[in-house]
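Write out the 3D structure for:
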Amino acid sequence: MRIYTRSLNEISAAIPEIVELARTFSAHALVLDGEAIAFDARGRPHPFQVTMKRFGRKLNVAASRTALPIQAFFFDCLKVGDESIAGRSTAERFTALAGAVPAPLLIPRLVTSSEPEASIRYPGGLALRLARVKRYRDDKRVDEADTMDAVRKIYAAQAGPAQD
């Protein structure tokens, strides 16, 4: 069992809780893509820089594990057994992922047609899905950005007029 960063640094020894978790999966040979996230006491993700503190640890791993526990969430499956599925369709890879990883560990996804679909969660009818969140603002509520007009207003207030 080995865990690597995007730059292919092996970090298995630094995050033993994810190694232990992955060993519980039914498939014994997998290549998965995912995120390791540290959460604060309120259940909110720590900033990326805080989470990264765990990845370079080789000493006092047990103390770091207690002070800053890491959870794994997965979004892609690239290999199952001896077979690479990296070149297969997204749907096939997601199906393989769902068969290999328990549902609570999957990053939620919404597959839609090219037309915007109504959202039952957001009154504006559109839900924006972003691949990665670089930061969040404690002073803004989620419902303040439920329409494209609201997003444009927020963007304009912060960085100037939005481009269509």
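The helical segments are 16-22, 48-52, 61-67, 90-100, 148-159.
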